Amino acid sequence: MPTNRERIEEWSKAYWLLRFYQNFLFKLYFKTEIVGMEKLPPNTTFIFAPNHQNALIDALAMLTLKHSWQPIFLARADIFKKPLVSKILTFLKIMPVYRIRDGFENLSLNDSIFLKTMDIIRKGNGLVILPEGNHAGFKMLRPLKKGIARIALQTEDASDGSLNIHIVPVGLDYSNYVRYRSKLLIRIGEPFPVKKYLDLYRQSKALAYNALIDELSERIKAEMIHIEDEQNYYEYLFLTQLFPKRFIKENKLPNTLNQAFEISKRLILKLDRLKETDRSTFDGIIQLAHELRDRISANRIKTQALPLKVSKAFNLLWMVPLFVALSPLAIFGFINHIIPIIIPYQLSKKFEDVQFHSSVRHAAGLLLLPLAYLIQTVIVGLILKSLAMALLYLVLLPPAAVILYNWRKLFYKIRGLISILIFATRNRNEFERINNHFNRLMNDIKSIF
Fold it and tell me: What's the average model confidence in pLDDT over 339-356?
């Protein structure tokens, strides 16, 4: 297995160019909001520890924190088996960590990784370790692996505490793991020093690992949406999707992702406490949420459409003409982006794990978009025999993509409004029941909030 990663900690211009391009497309895919960067003191060595819910996207999210930053990622060693893949991963500043399942005889290879870790930290690059070990599409922190504690404490101990490593808890919160233009909130938590556990580590490594992991776990939970009640998980999740939006609007608060996050965290805490102090009221809220969720699901109504209002249908008066007017430009945009749209989508469908879909679509788009633009521009230039027309065509491609996206978004809004209008006409009683359920639920939540 290739080990040519002697200079992985060195700043790379080629990597910077790729990362700049990746970040640009990443922020097109996810509407990203970052909070807490001011908590990172200068001239400090960091190990970043985000929660892990969305496969490769979680790692790419960390690259958006600083423009010039080139952190090193640690990943499981089995993905490095093929020489070409290993070279690519090394270029992407990813190093392997060996586990017992990779073969007991390979564990000694971690010694060189730990030595390289010291070089990386001294260089000030920073490490990113996803301490849950693998991903799961739930808003819940799973038990952390001890690898991050081993690496941090062994490296700090080897430097006799001089590196002053700080672990940074990071919370990643997605509005949707796959959908294009979903929202992503990245919350940077308060860093804490590893050397506070150094004396304990020298007495008992196991106790030090456990203590560090326990603290890190609580700190990550504070920076993410963590729903501990597995039995009522979907009701909790449903309420965090409904209530913050309404609360922000009624109280005229800043409509930011972090504002909605803070309200959701407070709501979860209130519900957890209510479950212990007033089980009857808690069960009533959960039952209402369950019934409302079932009703809108049965009638194919989206959560964001609540409360249902027929008056919203008046928006069709301007939406439909705009949709028709944009259609020719949208068709032009679709035809000229069919390759970077269809191929990533079809490739993602080959993965049963939905959490890989956005990773595959984003990675395929990174490669296919510039290739499609280049090839199509050359073809247009050859057909029209005009460099000026080819360049004009190239300049028009990005606006066409924007028009296509907004045209598609407008289509779904029109379809949704028409569906609600038909539903209100054909099933007025159920329409009113849903709104009554919604209003009762919101009033019950406000009474405990």
Answer: 92
Helix-strand-coil percent breakdown of the chain, rounded to 5? 65, 10, 25
Cα(61)–Cα(86) distance, integer angstroms: 22
Bin 302: left if φ > 0, else alpha if -120 < ψ < 50, else beta.
beta
- Would you kindly state where each structural domain of the chain is located, as residue ranges? 13-222, 233-299, 310-426
pLDDT in tens, 390-438: 999 999 999 999 999 999 999 999 999 999 999 999 999 999 999 999 9
For domain 13-222, say whether CATH 3.10.20.340 is its number: no
Distance CA 69, CA 429 (A): 57
Nearest alpha carbon to residue 250 among 33, 442, 448, 444: 442
For 61-85, write each residue's pLDDT tens digit.
999 998 778 888 887 777 777 787 7
Are 404 and 335 in contact, with CB atoms under 8 Å apart? no
pTM over 0.90: yes
DSSP annotation of 340 reads: H
* C-alpha span between 390 and 383 (Å, rounded): 9
Q: What's the rounded Cα separation, in Å, for the pair 444 and 274?
A: 12
List phi, psi (to 5°) of 387.
-65, -35
**DSSP-derived secondary structure letter, 188:** E
